[in-house]
Every structure is written in C-alpha cells, then in structure tokens.
Design brief:
The complex is a heterodimer of chains A (118) and B (117). Chain A has 118 residues and is mostly beta strands. Chain A has strands at 3-5, 10-14, 19-21, 24-26, 32-39, 46-52, 59-61, 64-69, 74-79, 88-96, 107-108, 112-117. In chain A, strands 2, 5, 6, 10, 11 and 12 form a 6-stranded mixed beta sheet that branches. Chain B has strands at 3-7, 10-13, 19-26, 32-38, 44-51, 57-58, 67-73, 76-81, 90-97, 106-108, 112-116. Classes of the chains: A mainly beta (118), B mainly beta (117).
C-alpha cells in the first residue's frame, strides 16, 4: 500500500518569506507519479505539478520549485517570496503508474495549511 | 486541461433523504472517474472508482449500499448518498484522468459540500 506523509500540519509565515512544504512517500512500486495540489478555501483542487518517478530533475515554475529525491523518498515544495494569495491547504499525492490495480487512485497526504500574513 | 463539472456545489438536506451529486467530463470522455471524500480539516480519501458501463469498485470500509455510484455514460458519473445522516456531512469531490495531461494527469471537479441536518 502507498502512503504519503506531510508532517507539517500548519505553517505560518509573513509575506515575502520563503517557505518549504515537506512530503515523504512510501511505495514498493518503482514507477509512480507524485503530485502537489493547492486547495483554497473554496475547496477546489488546483493542480500544481506532476512528477514521474523516473525524472528526478528539480523543477522551477515562477515562485514555485520542487525538489524530488528518490533516495529519501521526498518531494518537497518551496514557495519563494510568499504572498497572501498563497494561503491555502497544500496536498502532496501519489499514484501508481499504468498497469497496476491502483492505477488512477491518488493517495493524499494529510495536507499542510499555509497561512501567509501581510 | 480538460474540465470536470460537478454539481451541486453545496447542498443541505434533511436526515433520511437522499442526495445525488453529478460529475460531468466536458469535451472529453472519462471511462473512469474517482470519488473522494474530505472531512473538515482532513485529507481526501478515495471512496470508489467509477467505471463506465460496469459496477463501481469501492474502497474498504465504504458502504456501497449507502453511496450509490452510477457511470451510465462516458461523460457522466453520479454519486447518490442514500438515507443521509449528519455523519455523512462532508466535502465530496470527483476526478477523472485528463487526456490533455498525459499519463498520470488528473483533473478534479469543484467539489460538493454536503450538510445533513
């Protein structure tokens, strides 16, 4: 079975600070996808990134960056120069690759509530 | 990416009544949809996998007679909460594989907040 752990329940920062959200995952499969989603107060899930288990390259998208390290089974998410609009719940998730019985099923972490104060 | 339309956004119902939630894939066919449930300040838990033209597959601990799932067409999946009780109050959200995002890409509906009084 898969497991995703987001140890940080809540994080509070002041605007313009950098913040890193941690994500540690467990799976016996060698092929899988990792995701980060943002959930604002309205509830919808906003897709941020997907990473294939074979691609360990870090990625940067504007103020967002992701650090994927298979050696430590971690997929951390950093927001640089945080803004009030970044306040939301952030979820890390994992799904197995095609062919398995768990294909398509997302296993979510517990979520991290990020509050950015002005 | 593709869009999944979910309705209603919120619903309040009386205890003992049934509530139907719809998820429609717009401009693409979703042979499989997933239904998740989220209690306040908690994570999303997969309830069931909805397959077009066949019975849904429920996760362990989910009552299939209480949460009826129908996937009668390639663009519509419905979740009916039967004989709802206050403990069923939750946020329900569906997802489908997004054909525009390739392998491993999923798009979510906007969710339905159910309150049973």
């Amino acid at each position: 079975a898969q497991k995703v752990t987001q140890a940080q329940t809540e994080i509070s920062v002041v605007e313009k600070e950098d913040v890193t959200l941690d994500c540690v995952y467990e799976t016996r499969d060698t092929t899988y996808y990792l995701f980060w989603y943002k959930q604002p107060p309205s509830g919808e899930l906003v897709f941020l990134i997907r990473r294939n288990s074979f691609d360990e390259q870090n990625e940067i998208s504007g103020r967002y960056s992701w650090n994927f390290q298979k050696s430590t089974s971690s997929f951390n998410f950093t927001i640089t120069a945080s803004q009030v609009v970044d306040s939301a719940v952030y979820f890390c998730a994992l799904t197995l690759n095609a062919g398995g019985t768990s294909y398509g099923k997302l296993t979510f972490g517990q979520g991290t509530i990020l509050t950015v104060h002005p | 990416g593709a869009v999944v339309s979910q309705h209603p956004s919120w619903v309040i119902c009386k205890s003992g009544t049934s509530v139907k939630i719809e998820c429609r894939s717009l401009d693409f066919q979703a042979t499989t949809m997933f239904w998740y449930r989220q209690f306040p300040k908690q994570s999303l838990m997969l309830m069931a996998t909805s397959n077009e033209g066949s019975k849904a597959t429920y996760e362990q601990g989910v009552e299939k007679d209480k949460f009826l799932i129908n996937h009668a067409s390639l663009t519509l999946s419905t979740l009916t909460v039967t004989s709802a009780h206050p403990e069923d109050s939750s946020f329900y959200i569906c997802s489908a594989r997004d054909p525009d995002r390739g392998e491993g890409g999923y798009t979510f509906g906007s969710g339905t907040r159910l309150t049973v009084v």
